[in-house]
Model the fold of this input.
Amino acid sequence: MVQDIRIEDYDYPLPESRIARYPLAQRDDSKLLVYTESSGRVPENRKFRELADFLPEKSMIVFNNTKVVPARLFFQKDTGALIEIFCLEPAEPQDYQICFATTSSCSWKAIVGNLKRWKEGRLHLYIGDDNPDAALLRDMALEAELIERGQTSVVAFHWRGGYSFSQVMEHAGRIPIPPYLKRDTEAIDLERYQTWYAKREGSVAAPTAGLHFTQRELDALDAKGIKRMNLCLHVGAGTFLPVKSQTIGDHTMHSEPFSVSKDFLKALISKGETPLTAVGTTSTRCLESLYYLGVHCLECGEPGTVEQWEPYRQEGYSYPLTAALQALVDYLEQAGLEELHARTRIIIVPGYRFRLIDYLVTNFHQPKSTLLLLISAFVGDAWQAIYDFALSHDFRFLSYGDSSLLQKV
Done:
């Protein structure tokens, strides 16, 4: 059973010196490891700006256009103690766009640092003496109120001045860079821990495979007749959670919200044998979840949520992919909707059957991580040779590191 997979079998030595602490001066100066049939299934060391050269003409490529928000907010008690509130996702209103547009109050699910010291009452935003937005922040008078206490708490925010919560976060918050960078957020992260094409606010971590793209790469894709499409999966803090159990069956995956348009689904239905490239593991998880949501519609009438082990329990499904996707389109049309909003907790590990993607653009992931298991599911045992090659050819690892183009085995 796939649940018996031992996480220790997906370990490799990653020296601290190989973790990229900062981005390169130019996004597309990063290296690109190519592992495809055209490379003879042997890793090649190329430049990211060459990506389009290795993708089939008139194929399709899917990007995650989520936008990272400055989700770390710092408040101060009357005693001077600082309380960090790390916003995860909206609690009320639950819709991201509506929540970011609110102009006086909203509540969020959040991780609260120093929670034991927050007994009751509202907290005031901490404003440092050297903060260039100090006057604006005082005008906002942002306060935090603890609604529910727990490992994930619920915090209500109140402010004045008619600012949207998007503006509140922009001026009061900090970008939550990954903990393994072992440094505070700096000015460079405001631009570079964000994809070139980021559009829809909501992520607390970047879909890092997309950090390498500039307009030059997008133009090169267009010149080759490669159809560019967008979905939106808001990346949660759970993406950084390590696997602490001995077997993957004891690991609980986090749930993430995503959305795709009806036109996006129709394009997938009509693609036939056209190869599809997913930019990043987030795009992959979203795309691969669509089949199971469509099956839900066929059997239950509505999409629901894709649960962690569903693809393995339900491997006997005989529904064609096009039938499942069409069921999603039918559901949207019957409901008068132009966009599907759903959640997924899918975990992709060796033994998974990929239904949609043929190529994957992705960075190099942490040892013993669910993301490394996804890579193994995609390329088989070759993941070890790929990572050995990357380590021996000075590739940079993790969020600000180099990239790879992999083709499904």
Q: What stands out?
A: The first helix runs from residue 96 to 101. The mean pLDDT is 95. The first strand starts at residue 31 and ends at 35. The radius of gyration is 22 Å.
